[in-house]
Amino acid sequence: MSSTESQAATPADGAVQAEPGAEAESGGDPGIDALYYRWLAGPATFDAPPDTERMVLEQVRAMTQNPAVAAELVPRVPELIPRLLRSMRDENVSTNELAGQVAEDVVLVAEVLREANSAYYRPMTPIKTLDAAIMLLGQNGLRMLLARVAFRPIIKLHEAGFARRAAPLVWNHSEKCAVAASLMAPGVTADIFESCLAGLMQDVGLIVALRLADRVCQNGRVPASSAFGVELLARSRHLSAVIATHWDFPNNVADAIAQAGEANGSSLAQALAQGDRIAKLRLLIDSGMLLEEDALVTEGLNSFQRRCLGKLANLEE
Predict the structure, then answer these.
(1) pLDDT, tens digit, for every residue of 137-184?
(2) What percent of the chain has pLDDT over 70?
(3) Residues 6+ apart with CB under 8 A from 309
(4) What is the distance between the alpha carbons of residues 148 and 200, in angstroms, rounded to a whole number?
(5) Distance of alpha carbon 269 from alpha carbon 26, whole angstroms
(6) Which of 14, 175, 236, 293 is 20–30 Å from 149 (CA)?
């Protein structure tokens, strides 16, 4: 373990420590999740008494029994997502037909052109027409872009509190997780677009959980304990799964979110778990909490996953 990781993983609050490959029963890697929670919380933490931590976690657990109430704590994902699932399954849809649909929304036109000209795709010459942009992105690329656009309203929280500060950081992870999961999908025979959807949907429960934490803590801060953070992330994933079901997402997407990190999870769950890990490592490296040479990267990822880790850096360009 590198000195960087050691400093980050052993704060005074008694952070969860784990070997690079250790998996929690609830899904995810507790070592990476502990570091990710510290990155997400930043300086907005306090030494919460155990009763406060238990109250937050219990409220998150209770919300899994009442997804309709939980879903009210985040803006509804626009109906674009179900329509995408229905209308874009047709592999015979022509570029002209897709361009005609996209052209109806000026915002989408700008997003498609921006995406096609991004460092992620690296076109040889600037892409100036909608047809050319859609041709470059391909059908899956376009579907994933439209899905990201549809999910963005979830981070637009207007009230004060920790959740509002953290929401853009959570969205940064969501975008990276969606891309990484879609890149991992072919290797485990999972559907590319559904992997993207699972990556975007996985963090919805976390936004709800952070809003609940704001209600309990009422100081714009969250408990500093990394053990609390790891458990909060695990319960939030399950909350995301039940909200996905409530929003009529495909059952296999909701199941993948619930199973991510489990040894016997579906191929979609495997793609999501790998994408989640890669996305978190990218954020931790970019923040300086880990080094590219850390064992969590060099030993925890195979060569293809490390290339994906590098590719995620281009999402910011």
Answers:
(1) 887 787 777 777 777 776 666 677 999 899 999 999 999 999 999 999
(2) 82
(3) 180, 278, 281, 282, 285, 297, 301
(4) 7
(5) 13
(6) 236
DSSP codes joined into one string, the chain: --HHHHHHH--TTT-----TT---TTSS-HHHHHHHHHHHHTT-EE---HHHHHHHHHHHHHHTT-HHHHHTTSPPPPTHHHHHHHHTT-TT--HHHHHHHHTT-HHHHHHHHHHHTSTTT--SS---SHHHHHHHHHHHHHHHHHHHHHHGGGG---S-SHHHHHHHHHHHHHHHHHHHHHHHGGGGT--HHHHHHHHHHTTHHHHHHHHHHHHHH-SS-EE--HHHHHHHHHHHHHHHHHHHHHTT--HHHHHHHHHTT-TT--HHHHHHHHHHHHHHHHHHHHTTSS-TTSHHHHTTS-HHHHHHHHHHGGGG-
Confidence at residue 263, expressed as pLDDT on a 0 to 100 scale: 76
Contacts of 174 (CB under 8 A, 6+ apart): 151, 199, 200, 202, 203
Q: Report the greatest alpha carbon distance in the chain.
A: 59
Cα 88 from Cα 139, distance rounded (Å): 8
- Structure tokens belonging to residue 301: 């990822």
Do 38 and 226 meet the contact criterion of CB atoms below 8 Å apart?
A: yes
- Determine the Cα–Cα distance for residues 187 and 189; give it in Å rounded to an integer: 6
pLDDT at 248: 82
CA atoms within 13 A on the CB side of 21: 6
Beta bridge partners of 222: 45
